[in-house]
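Quarterly update, task 2.4: magnesium ion-bound model.
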Amino acid sequence: VVSIMTFTYYRKGVMHEQVLPPEDLAFASELEAAIAHQEFYLVYQPQLDLTTGALVGVEALIRWRHPQQGVVPPVKFIGIAEVTGLIVPMGAWVLKAACQQVAAWKDGALSQVKVSVNVSPIQLRSAGFHAYVQQVLRETGLAADRLVIELTESAFVHTDDKGTAHLQALKQLGVKLAIDDFGTGYSCLAYLRDIPGDYLKVDRSFVNDVPGKERSEAVTSAIVVLGKNLHYQIVAEGVETQAQADYLKSLGCDLVQGYLYAKPMEAGVLQQWVRDRQTQPL
Ligand code: C2E
Ligand code: MG
Ligand code: MG
Ligand code: MG
C-alpha cells in the first residue's frame, strides 16, 4: 500500500498536491484495496431506439460490493477516486471488463450492441489512455465502433486545440464519443460545436421536468434541435414515464435510457431480460 498522506492530481491543467482529511484517507485506502481485491463489478443499462424499440446499446456502470457496507453506488466513491488518482486504475478495469463482456455476447441482440463506458476527465488526460483504449480493443476483439466513450462536460472545460486533438485521436481509433449530462455543469455551446462527438445525452434533470414545466420544455427542445443540427444522435437519460417518452419522441430524440424500460442489471440478468423481451415501438 502506497503512502497516501498527500495525493498528486491535476486540476485546470495544473499539478496539485492534495492533503486529505483522515476519514477520506482511510476511505481512499479502502478503495485502493478494493481495486486489488476486485470488489468492483459492472451493471448494464439498456439504451433503446425511441422509434423501433430496438436495443442498440448498454451503458456500463460501476458498483462496489463492499465487504461490510454492501453495494456502494458510484456517487459515493468516484469523487475520492478522482482526487486520489485511483480513478485511473479503476477506470482502466471498467473499460476492459465492459469491452470483454460485450465482446463475449455472441448471439441475439446483444451480439450487436454498443457499450458506453464513462470516462473521467482525469482518466482521459492520464498518460497512455489512448494506447490503453487501443490495447483493450485489440485484446478483446471488440469492434471499435461498438465502444462509446462517455465524457461529462467537465472533460472539455480545458479543451484547447490540444484537447480537441486528443479527442480526434481517439476518434481515429474508430470509437464513438458521447457528451454526458449535457445541459448541467459546464455547458458551453463552443464545446458542442468543436468536439467530434457522436452522441449527446440530455441530462436527467431536464427529462424529469418534461412535459409540463414550460421552461424545462424550452431548454430540452432547444438542446435536441441544436444537437440534431450538429449531427449528434440525441439520447435522453433518466426516462421514467411514458409521458416523458412521448414528449421526447415528438422532439425527435433518437435514443432513450431509463427506469421506464430497465434499471442497470448485471450481465446475466440483462441476458435474461433480452430473451424475455419483445421488441416493439416505444
Ligand atoms: P451517468 O453516466 O449520467 O449515468 C446515469 C445514472 O443515472 C446511473 O446512475 C443510472 O443508474 C441512473 N439512472 C438511469 N436511469 C434512471 C432513471 O430513470 N431514474 C433515475 N433516477 N436514475 C436513473 P449510477 O449508476 O448511480 O451512476 C451515477 C454516475 O456515476 C454516472 O452518471 C457517472 O457519472 C458515474 N459513473 C458510474 N459508473 C462509472 C464509471 O465506471 N466510471 C466513471 N468515471 N464514472 C462512473
Ligand atoms: Mg454516463
Ligand atoms: Mg449521464
Ligand atoms: Mg446524468
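Highlight for this quarter: The two ends are 50 Å apart (CA to CA).
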